[in-house]
Amino acid sequence: TIPPEERAAIDRGLKDVEEGRTTPHEEVRKIYAKWL
Fold first, then answer.
1. Averaged over 2-15, what is the pLDDT?
2. What pTM did the predictor assign?
3. Cβ(36)–Cβ(29) under 8 Å?
4. Which parts of this chain are annotated as the region Disordered (predicted)?
5. What is the pLDDT of residue 21?
6. What is the C-alpha separation between 15 and 22, in angstroms, rounded?
7. CA 32 – CA 3 distance, rounded (Å)
8. Is the dihedral of CA 13, 15, 17, 20 positive or negative?
């Protein structure tokens, strides 16, 4: 089973996705391209 702390972190992440508080993968790749 997942510990309560991990479950809470997952729930927060899912809420961020639902509310549009994420950055698309392609944008992140552009930002960090010099390190990849």
1. 98
2. 0.67
3. yes
4. 1-23
5. 98
6. 10
7. 32
8. negative
> Is residue 2 within 8 Å of residue 10, measured between CB atoms?
yes
8-18 CB burial, b ≥16 within 10 A, e <16: eeeeeeeeeee
Q: Tokens in use for 28?
A: 């992140």
- Measured in residues, the chain has a length of 36
pLDDT tens digits, residue range 14-34?
999 999 999 999 999 999 999
Contacts of 7 (CB under 8 A, 6+ apart): none
Look at residue 36 in the predicted model and tell me its pLDDT. 77
Domain boundaries, the chain: 4-35
